[in-house]
């Protein structure tokens, strides 16, 4: 729900309550801010000058915490992706106040009206961010992408880079991005399809009022520029994971495939949205055929994203292949160190491995502690997301008490029947006797309480 936009601030009071409930920090302790100011004043020295490489960034127009910049060059039939990542370790030292606070937070927490950053803004949104206003310290990964989409890490180095332009998803032109941008993205996505990946691109959710004063929830699919940009990050993270696993070290992002019960619920969700999911088609195959521009299909993609068993972090373990089912590959997080603590340590390990050096002991030790820290950060993010979803659903239905909605039962347990509304991307529970998953029922909205973030339905047919 970090993508949820609320431009009119119609949910401000409810979002403030969520911040209080989950103790989302409004700022940083004074010692951390002082340490960040001192770190920001450090001039980057002692690294190769790569400012002649024409790096650019591509992000939402309003973003200022820019983790990645990229450049692409042809190498025969292959493409070389030079992916510059913000060098957070240049500014943050193990055990300093900034580092200690980052270990407490684990990751940036997002809400529709703002965020609680992993690092102070003077670093995350200025001096460490790859903004196009001067040289920046970065770690440059070079990944070779073959015509069939196979990736291999060619090198990694700390360097001084200069971004040429801060490009925006909704305004970028083809002539502003490096040649090969579209081709590289196509190679990566085609390779995903061949290996059976089920990575989904959920839509952005926007809350607004309609002409009657009711809240509505609009779903905006990702732009082509966003999907292509995501392919660059994916290519780098796959190459990084392969290099670390081959070296017998690393921290990996892993996720099991949705279990049979989750897939069964999703089939019923597809039924609720009037989508035809052939019995012989897998979830991955079905998702790849959906159109994010269609409201119902877009809503299903969002439901599929929420139905997974959840990803986690796993350090390298001899004899155990770390596997991410949605990627259908071994996968690591290395490209968002301004927003995820784990990435800073993965980057340090890659620098060592790529240059024939031993991984620092403090990095290897961190790989053992990070899964629990990141699990807690992910859990907090998920709880906040769920609370925001509940708030949005209650706001969207507020004022519609008494209306009747068609729904499909997607699951049953001691809490009652889990239902999916057919006309809205809303999941709720109600008492419904004598039904089975897949039963179509009619329900009346009894209440929509934005203060408690609760909606109540009663079955009428």
Explain this structure.
By secondary structure, this protein is an alpha+beta fold. The chain folds into 3 domains: 12-256 and 310-397, no CATH class; 257-307, no CATH class; 404-459, Nucleic acid-binding proteins (OB fold (Dihydrolipoamide Acetyltransferase, E2P), Beta Barrel). It is 35% helix and 24% strand. A hairpin with a 2-residue loop joins strand 4 and strand 5 (114-116). Helix 6 (181-195) packs across helix 7 (224-247) and helix 7 crosses helix 11. The protein is globular.
What does the secondary structure layout of this molecule look like, with pairings?
Blueprint: H1 12-21, H2 30-40, E1 55-59, E2 68-75, E3 78-86, H3 88-91, H4 97-105, E4 109-111, E5 114-116, H5 121-127, E6 136-145, E7 151-161, E8 163-168, H6 181-195, E9 204-209, E10 215-220, H7 224-247, E11 251-254, H8 260-272, H9 283-288, H10 295-307, E12 312-315, H11 341-354, H12 361-397, E13 404-413, E14 416-421, E15 427-430, E16 440-449, E17 454-459
Parallel strand pairs: 1-8
Antiparallel strand pairs: 2-3, 3-6, 4-5, 6-7, 9-10, 11-12, 13-14, 13-16, 14-15, 16-17
Helix pairs in contact: 1-12, 6-7, 7-11, 8-10, 11-12
What coarse outline follows from CA principal-axis ratios? globular
Beta strands, count = 17
Largest sheet: 5 strands, antiparallel
Strand content: 15-25%
Order of helices and strands: HHEEEHHEEHEEEHEEHEHHHEHHEEEEE
| Straight-line N-to-C gap | 33 Å
Regions with little confidence, pLDDT below 50 for 5+ residues = none
Q: Count up the domains.
A: 3
Give the count of helical stretches: 12
* Strand-pairing-aware structural class: alpha+beta
Mean pLDDT across the residues is 91
Residue share in helix: 25-40%
Q: What is the rounded Rg?
A: 23 Å
Instruction: Walk across the major sheet and give the strand order.
Output: 15-14-13-16-17
């Amino acid at each position: 729900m970090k993508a949820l936009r609320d431009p009119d601030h119609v949910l401000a009071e409810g979002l403030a309550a969520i911040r209080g409930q989950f103790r989302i920090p409004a700022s940083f302790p004074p010692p951390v801010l002082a340490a960040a100011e001192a770190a920001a004043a450090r001039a980057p020295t002692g690294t190769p000058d790569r400012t002649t490489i024409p790096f650019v960034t591509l992000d939402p127009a309003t973003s200022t915490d820019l983790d990645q910049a990229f450049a692409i060059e042809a190498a025969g039939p292959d493409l070389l992706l030079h992916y510059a990542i913000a060098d957070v370790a240049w500014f943050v030292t193990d055990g300093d106040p900034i580092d200690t606070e980052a270990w407490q937070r684990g990751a940036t927490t997002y809400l529709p009206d703002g965020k609680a950053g992993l690092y102070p803004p003077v670093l995350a949104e200025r001096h460490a961010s790859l903004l196009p206003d001067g040289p920046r310290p970065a770690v440059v990964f070079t990944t070779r992408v073959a015509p069939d989409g196979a990736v291999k890490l060619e090198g990694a180095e700390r360097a001084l880079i200069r971004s040429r332009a801060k490009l925006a998803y909704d305004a970028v032109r083809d002539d502003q991005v490096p040649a090969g941008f579209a081709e590289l993205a196509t190679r990566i996505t085609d390779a995903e399809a061949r290996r059976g990946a089920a990575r989904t691109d959920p839509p952005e959710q926007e809350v607004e009022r309609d002409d009657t004063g009711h809240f509505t929830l609009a779903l905006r699919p990702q732009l082509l520029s966003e999907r292509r940009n995501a392919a660059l990050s994916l290519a780098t993270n796959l190459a990084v994971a392969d290099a670390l696993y081959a070296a017998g070290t690393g921290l990996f992002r892993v996720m099991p495939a949705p279990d049979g019960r989750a897939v069964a619920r999703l089939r019923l969700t597809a039924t609720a949205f009037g989508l035809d999911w052939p019995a012989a088609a897998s979830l991955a195959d079905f998702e790849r055929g959906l159109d994010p521009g269609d409201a119902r299909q877009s809503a299903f993609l969002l439901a599929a994203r929420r139905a997974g068993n959840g990803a986690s972090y796993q350090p390298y373990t001899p004899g155990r292949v770390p596997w991410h089912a949605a990627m259908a590959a071994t996968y690591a997080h290395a490209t968002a160190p301004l927003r995820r603590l784990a990435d800073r340590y993965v980057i340090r390990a890659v620098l060592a491995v790529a240059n024939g050096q031993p991984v620092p002991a403090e990095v290897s030790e961190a790989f053992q502690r990070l899964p629990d820290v990141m699990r807690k950060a992910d859990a907090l993010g998920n709880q906040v997301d769920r609370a925001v979803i509940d708030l949005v659903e209650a706001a969207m239905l507020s004022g519609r008490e008494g209306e009747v909605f068609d729904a499909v039962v997607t699951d049953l347990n001691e809490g009652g029947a889990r239902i999916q509304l057919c006309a809205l991307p809303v999941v709720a529970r109600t008492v419904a006797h004598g039904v089975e998953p897949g039963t179509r029922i009619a329900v009346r909205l009894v209440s929509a309480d934005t203060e408690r973030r609760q909606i109540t339905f009663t079955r009428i047919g």
